[in-house]
Structure formats: C-alpha cells, structure tokens
Amino acid sequence: MGSYLLKRLAASLLTALLASILVFLLVRMVPGDVVAQMMGQAGGENAAAALREFFGLDQPIYMQYLAWITHVLQGDLGVSWTRGIPVATMVGQAFLVTLEIALLTLFIATVIGVPLGILAGIYENRPLDTAIQSFNIIGLSAPVFWVGLMLLVGVSATFSWSPPLRFVTPDRSLADNLAILALPIASLGLLQAAAYSQFVRQNVVSAMSQEYVRTAIAKGVPVRGIFFKHILRNVMIPIITFMGLILIQILGGTVIIESLFALPGLGRLLLAAIETRDYPVLQGALLVVVVAAMVVNLLVDLTYRLIDPRVRVS
Amino acid sequence: MRHLDRSRLRGLARALVGATMLGAMALTPALAQEVSLYGPAAENAVSGGRLNMGLLLEPPGLDPFHQAADARIRLTVLVYQGLFYEAANGTAAPLLAESYEVSEDGLVYTIKLRQGVTFHNGKTMTAEDVAYSYNYIRNPDNGSPGAGDFSMVENVEVVDANTVRFVLSARNSSLPMTLGNKYGGVVPAGTFDDETAKNRINSESVGTGPFKLVEFVPNSHVTLERHEGYWEAGMPYLDGIDFSILPNSASMLVALRNQRVDLVALSRPQDVQQVAGVPGLTVERWPSLAQTAIDLGSELKPLDDVRVRQAISLAVDKAEITRAAVGEYGTVLGTMTAGMQEAWGLPLDQVPMQGPDRDKAKALLAEAGYPDGFNLTLTTINGFDWMDPASVTLKEQLNEVGINLDIQRVDLGVWVNNFRSSQMGFTFNDWASQPDPNLLFYRHFHAKPDGADFRNWNNAEASALLDEGRAEPDPAVRKDIYNRYQMVMAESVPTIMLYSPDHVTVRSDKVQNFVQHPTGWYFGLARTFLAK
Amino acid sequence: MALNVSPAPAARLTTTGRLMRSARREPGLVLSLVLLLLLLLVALFPQLFTPVSPLDVAIDQAMLPPSPEHWFGTDDVGRDVFARVIHGTRVTLSICAGSLLISALVGGAVGLVSGYFGGWFDQVLGRIVDVLLSFPPIILGMIITGVLGPHVGNLILALSIVYMPVFFRIARAGALGEVGKTYVEAARSVGIRERTILRRHVTRNVMPLLLTQYIILFPMILQIQAALGFLGLGVQPPTPDWGAILEQGKDYILFAPWMSVFPGLAILVAALALMLLGRAVQKRMDQR
User: Using CA atoms, how far apart are residues B140 and C210, in angstroms rounded to an integer?
Assistant: First the structure.
C-alpha cells in the first residue's frame, strides 16, 4: 500500500508538472497580451514597452517559465497583473466557491440519483424503471446552461424572485448563501443525478443477474434481504468510484453555470483571466483545476483499494 | 421593431416621458459659462443610504494611471479627480483647479489650485502632489496608456503651494480637457515610488474624489464609501455605492425586475423592451459621445484604393444598420458623434459620400477595376452585441453592390492587438472620447509618428488640418478648421461613422437625481440620492 | 418448386416479426432511429422543411412570437428561428460528427500503434494523454478555443483534441489485449509482417470498441459544442448553429423566450436520440 501510494503520488506529480508546462505554453499562445488590453486604443509604444518590462514579458519564454515554476514550488502563485491581488488569494476564494457548488451538487446528485438508480435496477423493465430511465435520458440530454436559463426565468416569472446578486460565503450568512446557490445547484444537480442514477441502475441490474441472486429469488428469499446482504455490497464500490467521476464532471460544468449565474468561482475566474490575458491568474487557476482533478482521482483510487480486498491483495 | 407589441411600446413611451431627450443638449465650445460639476445639485436632496448599482462590464482594474478600459473610467471618475471636469456642454470646468491663465504664446498655463482638498488618506493636497501626478503620467517610462495625450507637456512645475505651471512644446487648445478625469488624477507625491503601489491601488484608493474604495472583489463586486473629508460641502449624498458585477444581461434584467439592483446602465438599448412598463422602474435615455463605426485599414487590399472605400461608404445604409443594431435607441451620424454634432459637427446635409447610392457605388467599383465586386472579411468582436445584427445587415447591403462579405468574430484581445499594430483590416469599432474634436480625432487619424494612424490612412491634408485645429485658440476658427477636416475624412473614407448609441439607464423610483454623462462615465452618482 | 417458393414469404414474415418484437422490447432504440432518421433528413435536405433562408434579415419583423408564419418566432433581426434551427442541424451535427471522427481516427490509430509496439513511444504518449486527461473536457475545449480564437476550424480542432485521449486509451488497451493472443503469435510464426498483423487483424478486432465509443461520446461532444457556442467561442455569426442561436437568444429571454427555447430543445432531442442509440449499441456489445 505504502509503495503504491508513493508511486501514484510520484506519477501524479510528474503529470502535474507536465500539465503546468502545457498550461504555461497554452496561456502564452493566446494572441494579444495583458499590456495590449490595458492600453486599449490609446497609449504609445514606449509606455507599452515599459509595462511589458514590468511584467517580465520581455524575457524569453523558458526564463518566464522557470521563474514562475520556482515560485509555484515555493507556494507562491504570484500577483494578478490586472488586479494586484495575490493569485493564491483569488484562486483560493474562487476555489472555495466552486468547491461548495461541487459538493452540494454532488450531495443532491447522490441523494436523488442513488435511490432512483437502485429502484430502477430492482424493478428492471417495469413501468417504474421506464419512468426513471426516461428522467435519466432527458436529464443527460438537456444542455445544463439551457436548464439553468429556463429555471432562472421560470422562477423569476412565477415567484417574482431571483437570487441575490452579491455572493455571500456560508459563514457570513448560510441562508443568503443557499439562496444564491439554489438555482445553479438545481440545474447542475438534475443533470448529475440523472448520470448517477443511470450508472447505479446498471450496476444493480448486473448484480441482480448474478447466479446466486437469481437462485435466492427463485427460492423465495425476500428481495429486501438479498438486496441488503449481497447487492448493496457489490454496488457500493462503483457508487463511490463514480462519485469521483461526477465531481470532476461538476468541476467542468460549473464553468458554464458560474458565468450564467455570476458566481465568483473558478470557472468565471478562468474566463475573465482569458479575456484580460491575466497570465498569472490563468496559470494559477488552471493548475488548481488540474491538481484538484488529480487529487479526486487519487482519493477514488485509494478508497477503491481500501474497500475492495481483492484489489488490495493484488 | 415596428411590429412590436403596441401596448409595450406605449408603456415605453410613458416611461420615457420626462427623460432628457436627444438634442436637448448642445455642447458648445463656449468658455465663460457656469457649469455645475458632476450634474445639477438637488434642492430636496436627502443624505444617506447605499445605492445598489449593477455593472454589466467588470472593470479589469481600478488603476487610473495604467488601465485604459472604459469600464475602469466609469468608476474611477468618482474616486480620482483631475484639474478639470469635462462638462457635458463641451467646456472644461475647473475641478481641482480653481482658475487658470494662459500665456500670450499659448505655451504656458498657470493654474491656481483649489484649497482645502484632502486625499482619502487624510493628507491635504498641495501643488507638489499635482506636479508629481502629471509628471508621472506624461513620462512614457511609467507605462501609462494616457501618456500619449500629454506628449505636448514639457514640464509641470510648482510655482507656490497653491499654483502649478504647465509648460507646453506646442499650442494645444484642448489642454484643460486633457487634464480631465480620463487618465490619472491627482494622487499624493511619491505614490508610485513604491513598487507595490500599482497593485495596492486596486484595494485602496489614494484620490480626492467624493467616494473612496472599500473593496474590489473580482467577479463579484466593488464597494465605494463616501469620502468624509470631501471638499464640496454636503456632498456626496450617498453613504456608499455597491456595484454588483453581473456579466450576463439576461440575469441583470431579471435582477432589475426583482429589485435586486436600483440602477443599471444598459449596454444594449433594446434591452429596454424587457423592463419597460415594469412598475417601480423608470427608463431614461441620454445622448452619447460614443460612436460605432466601420474602419477601413488601407493596408488591406483593395481598401488602399480610395474609390473602393468611397463605394463601400455609398453602399452602406447607416439608418438600416442602426435600426438593426439598436432599434430606435441610436442617432445616425455623419462625421461627428451625437453629443458633439451641434457644437462641432459638419452639418449632416453637407457630408459627402453618404449612402445608400448603389448605382454610384457600383460605378466607382467598376472604375477601380472591380465591376464584379470582390470578397472582403469584416472583423467583429466577441461580446459586442450590436456587431452581430449590424454585421448581418452590412453583409446584405454590400452584397447589393457585389461585395461578398465574410464575417469573422475575434476576441477583444486579438482585436486590440491588430488595431494597435495598425493591422485592423475591415472592422467594426466601438469607441468614445471626451467632448473635444482634437481628443476625438488627433490620435486616431493624424499620420505617424505624431498620431497613431491606426487605419494607415496617411493623409497629409487631414494631418495638417488636425495640427492647425489643435493650436487654434479661437473657437469659431477652430470649428471651421474641423469642418474642413471632416470634409476630407468623409471624402477619403478611412472610417464610416455609423451611429451613437444612446445611453439608456433603468432606475428604481427611489433613485433620484442621477444624470448620465455623455461619456458614459458615472459622474452623476456624485449627485444622486435615495428618496426616503 | 413449392419448396423453393414457400421459404421466402416465411422468412419475410419472421423478419417483420423479429423487427416488431425487438421494437416492443427496445422502444428506446426505435425512437432513437426514427429521430436520427429525421435529423439526418433535416441535415441533408433542410430546404424540404423550410423554404425560408436562415440568413434573411427583416428588421421590421424582429422578435415576433411563434405564429403560423413563423413556427418558432423570429429573432432580434427578424430572421425566422425555425429556419435557423433547421439549417443549424447540418452545421451543428457535422461539426460534432467531424470533430469526433478526427479524434477517433487520430486517437485510435496512435493508440493502436502505441499499444501494439510499446516502448518509449508508448511511454511518452501515455504521459501526454495523462496530462490531457487531467483537464475537465469543457475547460480544455474552452482554453483551446480561447487560445486559437473563435473560428469554425479552431472549434473543430479543439473538439477533436478533447476526446482524442479517450480513443487513444481504448485503442491502446485493445491492442495490448490482442498482442498476447495466439492468432498474433501464429501469424508471426508464419512470417506475416507486424504491420500487416496490426492492420489486418488487430485493427479489425479493436474497431467495434472504437465505434461504440464514438456513439457514446457523440451526445457529450454535442453538449460541449453547444456550451462553447453559449460562451461565444463557437460558430461565427451569421451561420446558424444551435449553440450560437441560443447564445444570441439568451439576452432576450424575458422578452422573446422563443429565441432560446427552441434551439435548446433541438440540442436536447438530438442528444436524446444519440444517447438512446448509444445505450442500445452498448447493450449489444456487453452481450457479446
């Protein structure tokens, strides 16, 4: 276990390092730099050159990378070029928002998706299954931003209510925080609940079709007993694994939903940083996204190994 | 738009009654006219309360020295102050200046400063601070996008504690307007000696304006608070302003209807339809100094041929494009923005090469060697909503004379880069200036190296007129010079000015005495109050 | 004689019968095929469904609600939304199908070679794929289109990069699985060249896996394409594309909701049909 963990960590670190190079290069390929943005239609070339020097943009690209990665490895993500705030602060705040959305969405998706999936699996091919499956397929097919838009307008038209504008962290006011996040989480959660339910159903169906389960049912053992004794145990592992996948999916989905609902999360930070060509912020935010996705994958892997003895032995 | 629901339109018409209408304002270059700073003072004003204002565009930063974005200027005019205020009527009214004298040769401006002005940090403003601030911004090494505007300033000297002297290298009749609030402002001497000051300025303000910065949280909000030591007695009325940033106009309109925001300046006038007639909301429209335009870069063949440019100008139906882009919420232009047309514009019936005149356009194209037309790519910018419907309409219009238009939408960053390197090609543009013809035209259209000549126009006659206009102190003579310039511009077509979009603001009924300045900047908030 | 005639109608009967039976057993597949056929017809022959051009501007007809003349209403410059959605079908679906085909071909081919031959080449590619997979797909697509600028060519490039690693992995795993099998060794022992084995046999066995993945990923790439369009990074105006129509309509949602409702529904229907097909195909693969 220990050596496996070390190996996985080393591999993840290497991937993260390579990803950071990719991120760095990608970001610098964006045409038009921050100075051009700041200057707009005004300003002379001397002033622009002075600003480029200030930002270190006159250095060769590998020097820029070395300077950046050295600081990153020391835990310093630099300072935003347009706002002058430390990138770590900006990305940290934004990450917490996205994390809250992601965890709440995951919670909703699990609470709705898993029971629906189990029900559908147990009642395979019965009307209930068909109904749940229809929900799943439609939920998976609907574009998430479109659902969000429809929800926003629908709720506003029906209740003359719209979410408060200024984002409030849950420690300042939980009620306001939840009022702001209700609609975005509802639109994201619906989609992910559908994905979750679909996945759980498949696993329940395949667990149910195993020989001993079929024999037990044929012998007249009540389904409930079989379910808790055999099926649930078999289905637990994939359910947990899938949580990780969903979490990464949500991380991507928030980009769109954050820009629709004006939430100050990572997605909006990324979009704004692309627009203003704020390289340190863009690099920092992308790096955090990548590392977060890696950590989730690693955690899933480890839980998987802890729960399933067969994997542990091999 | 004619077929819109009539009852809605009636509601809209009612909503607009009482609002300032286009043309109600004349920007005359008169000199000795008393203007009220920021807007009219209210007689029945009450102090107190915080205003919730919605922002569709987030300022990329709040540094008036190093950030050119218009979204920045809109807010920082409340926080930082220059020596003059660019009044809506086209005069430069003394702001931090009290009065000024110009030397006989027009090269030395001696400016007396207002006394009793304090910075947000409590320090009193002195001539030292003023000289520092303007010497800092005019030095290109300091990287200000505004530096170019001050290139004719040779030095700013301290005369005594309350007087400064601006020494110019050439006559410049728009100096006071240049010392306005677009770039820079007066900050304490030595502010930028500290390397971290450029960063700190986004979280802590060091100006003299009626409001000071409390908090700027990216992608979320900007909070301003009244400056207790502000020099205008009893001003401002508001305790503070909370700007909420909502980049999505659908969400913004929903928030307006549900009273989450008190005041919004809409970026697309046609959004009015979606809030017109909502009880408790008032829609107002205001004239503008902004312009939308088609720019024709001569570096792109065949736009180097003046006949081709003239043909395009003749093929364009400005009124139809305006209708497609902003409905009735725009003023069709000749060669001057709407807010300055009366004071400085060439009368519309005298502007040459105005369309639509398709036969003449076709004849010119044939003469230039393109009887069957040619292919052309129009660049539009991501995020500028008006450009989409306008580009579709333009495509149809040019098609009539045989020009096949491809539309290419690029990111603002890409566009700005092309623009700055004078590789703009055939593009839509959307820009504004202070109410002065020199500030409007010089940098954009004067030949290099004095101007930037973004469109590679390189027109000697036009450049000479621009030089002449800049030096001329007599307003009447100046107006004549700029009229001649506009004739040249319209004949040779480096740009086709389309329309000025009206500023449209929506406020809840408790918001009183807000006047939208024609620049689009939020000067008016310094005089706004909330009804109890 | 009679013997020769009778089997034919009998066989026809059983075929029809089988079809009916499977239709009853898999209504999802039938629905999917019907919808896909319709979408294909719309994409190939949009003129059959509407005589109106999706580009015709009529300013005085702007933002009319749905009516018998304009089934889906008109947009902000008076274009017929129904015509735009109909003509958008070809644009949207061909961009998605094309991008996914590129990722399947490139990712699949490279994955096959990498898995079959192994070595440092495989190692390096594995790393690169790990790096690409460490980005959430939408964010990767967003960054690439953001970097390259919004243009159809760049959009296709970005979309094809997004899922290339998935095909790479599947093809690689498939090739790895085949390498150890006896027929490969047998082929080697009789002197067939490696390249021929890879092309003739391994590829043939891995193909169904790639095809299944193609169908499964199709609705997902549709969603990403629409999302990028929604962020303004997709197809350029005035070309009708579902995501782009939606993006344009979203600002008028209070006044003219039809501008965004219908393109959204179109995306939903297409994704639904493709997803149902994907499930049916996967079921068959699992059964094999």
Answer: 59
Full domain range(s) for residue A67: 31-76
What is the token pair recorded at C156? 């296709």
**Chain A residue whose CA is closest to C224:** A143
Distance from CA of A87 to the nearest CA of B (A): 11
Eight-state DSSP code of residue B270: G
- Residues from chain C contacting residue A133 (CB–CB below 8 Å): 28
| CB contact at 8 A, C96 and C64 | no
Residue A218 located in a structural domain: yes
Q: Is residue B389 less than 8 Å (CB to CB) from chain C? A: yes
**Alpha-carbon B7 to chain mean position:** 34
Candidates A29, A38, A257: best to mutate against B (most CBs of B within 10 A) is A38
Instruction: Provide ipTM, 2 decimals.
Output: 0.82
- For residue B277, give the nearest of B87, B13, B500, B60 by alpha carbon: B13
Cα three-residue angle B244-B245-B249, rounded to 5 degrees: 115
What is the Cα–Cα distance from A169 to A96, expressed in whole angstroms?
Answer: 9
Please report the number of interchain residue pairs, chain B to chain C, with beta-carbon separation below 8 angstroms.
76
A43 and A116 part of one domain:
no
Confirm if C171 and C143 have CB atoms less than 8 A apart. Answer: no
Can you give the pLDDT at residue B370?
Answer: 94
Residues A48 and A110 reside in one and the same domain: no
Does residue A22 belong to any structural domain of this protein?
Answer: no
Q: Say whether residue A30 is in contact with chain B using an 8 A CB cutoff.
A: yes
Instruction: Collapse the DSSP code of B296 into the 3-class scheme (helix H, G, I; strand E, B; otherwise coil) and give the result.
Output: strand
pTM, full prediction: 0.79
Dist CA B516 CA B503 (whole Å): 7
C138/A253 Cβ within 8 A: yes
Q: Which residues of A touch B147 (CB under 8 A)?
A: 43-44, 46-47
Phi, psi of B285 (to 5 degrees): -125, 145
At which residue do the structure tokens 């990722």 appear?
C103
Q: Which residue of C has its CA nearest to B392?
A: C238
DSSP state of A214: H
A38 and A161 together in one domain:
no
C236 contacts B273? CB cut-off 8 A: no
Residues A41 and A180 in one domain: no
**Between A305 and C82, the higher pLDDT residue:** C82
Q: Is it the case that residue B11 has pLDDT exceeding 50? A: no
Cβ–Cβ contact B36 with C under 8 A:
no
Total number of domains in chain A? 2
List of chain A residues whose C-beta atoms are within 8 Å of the C-beta of residue C136: 248-249, 251-252, 289, 293
Smallest CA–CA distance from B251 into chain C, residue: C251
Residues A46 and A168 occupy one common structural domain: no
Q: Residue B156 pairs with which residues in a beta bridge?
A: B166
Same domain, A64 and A169: no
Q: Where residue B264 falls among pLDDT bands split at 50, 70, 90?
A: very high
Residue B441 neighbours by CB under 8 Å, 6+ apart = B466, B482, B485
Of A15, A143, A259, the CB nearest to C130: A15
Q: Do A92 and A153 fall within a single domain?
A: yes
Which pLDDT does position A1 carry in this prediction? 60
Q: How far apart are alpha carbons C136 and A252 in whole angstroms?
A: 5
The CATH number, out of the four listed (3.40.190.10, 1.10.860.10, 3.30.70.60, 1.10.3720.10), of the domain defined by the range C44-59+69-287? 1.10.3720.10
Helices (H), chain A: 2-29, 34-39, 45-55, 61-73, 87-122, 127-141, 144-159, 174-208, 211-219, 223-226, 232-261, 266-276, 279-307, 309-313
Name the residue among C57, C237, C255 with its Cβ closest to that of B324: C57
How many residue pairs from chains A and C have C-beta atoms closer than 8 A? 115
Are residue A251 and residue A287 in the same domain, yes or no?
A: yes
Render pLDDT for B312-325 as a digit per residue (tens, 0 to 9).
999 999 999 998 88
Residue A232 placed within a domain: yes
Among B63, B220, B257, the residue with its CB nearest the CB of A264 is B220
